[in-house]
Description:
rod-shaped; 128 residues; mainly beta; 4-stranded antiparallel beta sheet
Amino acid sequence: MKKILFLVLFGFCFFLACNKDSNSIPAPAKPLQIVISNITTTLTIYSFSVTTQSSSDTLINIHSQTQNQTYHVDVSPGQNLKLHYFLELEGLNPAVQPVITFSYGGVTMASVTSDSGIISGDKIITIP
Length: 128
C-alpha cells in the first residue's frame, strides 16, 4: 500500500513539474516603430523621445530636420513608456496634416496629427 501511495505521489509531483507555467523567461524585446509621415514641405523640424516611465531611462531621443522617416527602438512587453513629440512644418499653410505614429507589433499604440502643421505633446503607453 505504501508503495502504491508513493508511486501516486511521485507521479503527481512529476506531472506538476512537467506542466509548470514557465513565465520566468522574459519575453524578447520587439521594436517600437515611430513613423513620421505625410510631410510635403521641404523644411520640417521634429523631435521626439521615448523614455521608460519607471526609471526615466531614455530609449531614443531624436532631433532632426528632414522629411518622412521611420525609426525603431527595442522595448519589452509590460514596459510603461513616456512618448514626447514635437513636429513643425515651416511655411504659412501646410498642404496636408503631418502624422507621427507609434506602433508595436503591427498595432498602433498612439497616433497624433494636427491641422495647424504643429504637433506637440506627451503620451504614456503600456507595451502589451
